[in-house]
Design a protein that fits this description.
There is one protein chain. By secondary structure, the chain is α+β, with helices and mostly antiparallel strands. The chain is 26% helix and 28% strand. The protein has seven helices and 16 strands. The strands form four sheets. Strands 1, 2, 5, 13, 14 and 15 form a six-stranded mixed sheet that branches. Strands 8-16-12-9-11-10 form a six-stranded mixed sheet. The radius of gyration is 23 Å and the shape is globular. The chain starts with 8 loop residues before the first strand and ends with a strand.
C-alpha cells in the first residue's frame, strides 16, 4: 500500500463487505430491517394501500371499485463521518503494517456506524452531539411512531403484548423487536408459580436471536435519549435501510482537518477519515409501536 492513499481513495470492496457485515451484527435496525443499496441521489419506495378485500364477481356480474392509495417515501443517504489522528509513522510503515492499521480502523468504524444508524433512525439524534439533527429532520421512529405504551417493569410481558396488539389493531404485522438491556433483565426475572424462569434464555445476560419465535435484538441504542425501552413492529417489510456502496477513505497529511487548531505536520501526525452514506425509510409508521418510559 503506497502513499498515494492521500485523498479520495475508496475502501476496498472486501473492506466494505466486512464493514457492512459488522454493522449488521451490531445494529438493531440493520439486523431486523431489510437492506437495499441506495444511490447517492436517493430512491423512492412506494407503498400501496388497498382499502377493500378482493371481490368475487359472478358471470356477467358487476365489478366494483376497491380503492387504493399510493404513498411514496423518499430515502436519501446521509453522510456519517469519523476521523482520527495517528502518528505519521504510518506513512513509513511496511505495507503489512498499514493494512493492519486500516483493518483495525475499519473494525472501529463499523461499530460506530452501527451505533450511529440506530441512534439516528430511532431517535433523530446526531450520535456525536446527542442533539436533534436538522439533517435527519422528522425521519425517525420517535417522531413518526405515535402508537405507544408506558413501560412497567413488573408487567413487562403484558406490556409487550399490549404493544403488539396496537400494531395488529392497525392491520400491521410484528416481525421483530428491539429492546434495552433493562427490559432483558426484567424478562429474565419473571418466574412462574413453580419459581421457574419464564425466559431462561435471557438469564445471565443472554442475547438470543428470537424469543417465542419473534426476532429480537438487545441494544443500548434503543434507550438513547431516555425515551424508549422497546420498539417493535414490521421491520422486515416496512423499514428499509441501505448504504451507498462507495465508501471514501482518506489519509490526510497536511492542515487541520478536524478543526482542533493543531497542524498535522507540526505534530508529526496524519489524519485517517472515513465516510459512509446511509439512508432509511419508515414506510408505514402504524406498523410499529414504542414502549416508552413514564411521562414521555
Amino acid at each position: 500500500m503506497s502513499t498515494e492513499l492521500s485523498r479520495g481513495t475508496l475502501f476496498e470492496e472486501t473492506l466494505v463487505t466486512d464493514l457492512i457485515n459488522k454493522v449488521k451484527g451490531k445494529s438493531s435496525l440493520a439486523k431486523l430491517g431489510t437492506e437495499e443499496p441506495i444511490p447517492f441521489n436517493g430512491t423512492k419506495e412506494f407503498t400501496f394501500t388497498m382499502d377493500s378485500d378482493i371481490d368475487i364477481v359472478a358471470e356477467n356480474g358487476k365489478k366494483s371499485h376497491g380503492g387504493i392509495s399510493l404513498e411514496p417515501v423518499t430515502i436519501l443517504p446521509i453522510k456519517f463521518e469519523y476521523g482520527a489522528r495517528i502518528s505519521d509513522e504510518f506513512m513509513f510503515a511496511s505495507d503489512e503494517a498499514k493494512i493492519d492499521i486500516l483493518k483495525a480502523f475499519n473494525d472501529g468504524f463499523a461499530k460506530k456506524v452501527a451505533r450511529g444508524l440506530d441512534i439516528a433512525a430511532f431517535h433523530g439524534l446526531n450520535p456525536r452531539t446527542s442533539t436533534a439533527s436538522s439533517v435527519i429532520g422528522n425521519n425517525h421512529f420517535d417522531n413518526l411512531v405515535t402508537q405507544t405504551v408506558t413501560y412497567e417493569k413488573a408487567n413487562v410481558d403484558d406490556i409487550i403484548e399490549t404493544a403488539i396488539a396496537l400494531v395488529e389493531g392497525s392491520e400491521g404485522d410484528v416481525t421483530g423487536m428491539a429492546m434495552t438491556p433493562s427490559v432483558r433483565q426484567a424478562l429474565a426475572g419473571l418466574k412462574n408459580s413453580a419459581n421457574e424462569r419464564l425466559y431462561p434464555e435471557l438469564a445471565w445476560g443472554g442475547a438470543p436471536g428470537t424469543i417465542n419465535g419473534l426476532a429480537v435484538d438487545i441494544n443500548k441504542t434503543v434507550a438513547v435519549g431516555n425515551v424508549d425501552e422497546i420498539i417493535l413492529g414490521d421491520f422486515a417489510n416496512v423499514f428499509k435501510w441501505g448504504y451507498a456502496k462507495e465508501i471514501p477513505l482518506e489519509i490526510i497529511q497536511y492542515g487541520d482537518p478536524d478543526n482542533s487548531g493543531k497542524d498535522l505536520k507540526g505534530h508529526n501526525q496524519v489524519y485517517v477519515r472515513a465516510e459512509v452514506y446511509l439512508g432509511w425509510g419508515i414506510l408505514d409508521a402504524s406498523s410499529f409501536a414504542r414502549v416508552v418510559v413514564s411521562g414521555e
